[in-house]
Design goal:
Blueprint (H helix, E strand, L loop, with lengths): L3 E7 L10 H10 L4 E4 L8 H8 L5 E12 L2 E8 L6 H27 L6 H8 L6 H10 L6 H9 L12 E2 H10 L3 E4 L7 H7 L6 E5 L5 H13 L3 E4 L19 E3 L3 H4 L4
Parallel strand pairs: 1-2, 2-3, 3-5, 6-7, 7-8
Antiparallel strand pairs: 1-9, 3-4, 4-6
Bound molecules: adenosine monophosphate, zinc ion and fe (iii) ion (2 copies).
Adenosine monophosphate binds next to helix 5 and helix 6.
Length: 273
């Protein structure tokens, strides 16, 4: 039987990934992955480059997004797949999120300055142009300037949720993110549910979701099995994604290591089986 290998979760330079969409496509071809989804944080701007670059090549790109949401007091990431990336509503919504992230970066730099870090917002702006700016972008600058030795320390000393330069970001409610994705013709999957309390996960899947990202670097085998069991019981698709952000980034560098083999791409779009 013919089967295809899918890795449904990747970030590019349009959010906090280290590789351009074209580079991501090339790397995936090299790793013999048949299907990848481009799923940048809160943006779809990287999709057209990936689609263009993949034309005529031996790979299929699924236009996706990973939207940061809030539910039950926790940050919940909702993946959208097969979205129409020319849909006006989702374009406008992601534009708003980009502006929120930009203004948040200004606030983070102000906090860093107050903590004695010599950093001009201009340096962030220059790198963040046209991007969905995330904390890792500022983390990379802190590493380069020698304030911290690695990203882990950037988060523990400055940027993390309990660290002194933390600034909340705007997050959509889960059902609103789901509506934007469905409205753009997409399907919805809850990302790395291992981040959530079990109780909250079981609440989140009551929303109109189509799948659960059961296989992910944050899940050990036992946890993956648990999510697969719940997904089956609730007639939700099982998906897998490496959450690739770049080579050498611990826990975020396993492109092709967290995959699911399916018979065909229809696996993701067929309902209720
Ligand atoms: P943001 O969307 O700006 O809140 O940034 C969150 C992103 O930062 C996550 O999606 C991860 O890619 C990354 N991140 C979060 N915590 C850490 C950490 N401790 N070390 C490295 N990267 C992290
Ligand atoms: Zn990220
Ligand atoms: Fe995520
Ligand atoms: Fe991600």
């Amino acid at each position: 039987m013919i089967s295809i290998i899918t890795d449904m979760h990747m970030h590019t330079t349009f959010s906090d990934g280290l590789n351009t969409p074209s580079e991501i496509v090339s790397m995936a071809i090299e790793k013999k992955i048949d299907v990848i989804a481009i799923t940048d944080h809160d943006t779809i701007d990287g999709i057209s480059e990936a689609m263009e670059f993949a034309k005529g090549k031996n790979i299929k790109i699924i236009p996706g997004i990973e939207i940061s949401c809030v539910h039950g007091g926790e940050e919940v990431h909702i993946l959208g797949y097969f979205i129409d990336y020319e849909d006006k509503k989702i374009i406008n919504m992601t534009r708003d999120l980009k502006v929120h992230r930009y203004n948040r970066a200004i606030e983070i730099v102000e906090k860093l300055n107050a903590l004695g870090v010599d950093l001009d917002f201009e340096e962030v702006r220059a790198r963040g142009e046209n991007k969905s700016i995330g904390r890792p972008l500022i983390g990379h600058i802190l590493i380069e300037k020698g304030y911290v030795k690695d990203m882990e320390e950037a988060f523990s000393s400055y940027l993390g949720n309990d660290a002194p330069a933390f600034v909340e970001k705007f997050k959509l409610k889960v059902p609103d993110a789901i509506d934007y994705i469905h409205n753009a013709g997409g399907i919805t999957v809850v990302a790395h549910p291992g981040d959530l309390s079990r109780e909250n996960f079981l609440e989140v899947i009551k929303f109109d979701l189509q799948g659960v990202e059961c296989i992910h670097p944050k899940h050990d085998e036992e946890l993956s099995e648990y999510f697969m069991k719940i997904a089956r019981e609730n007639k939700l698709k099982i998906t897998a994604g490496s959450d690739f952000h770049g080579e050498g980034l611990k826990g975020r560098d396993g492109m092709g290591d967290y995959t699911l083999e399916v018979e065909s791409i229809d696996y993701f779009t067929k309902r209720g089986e």
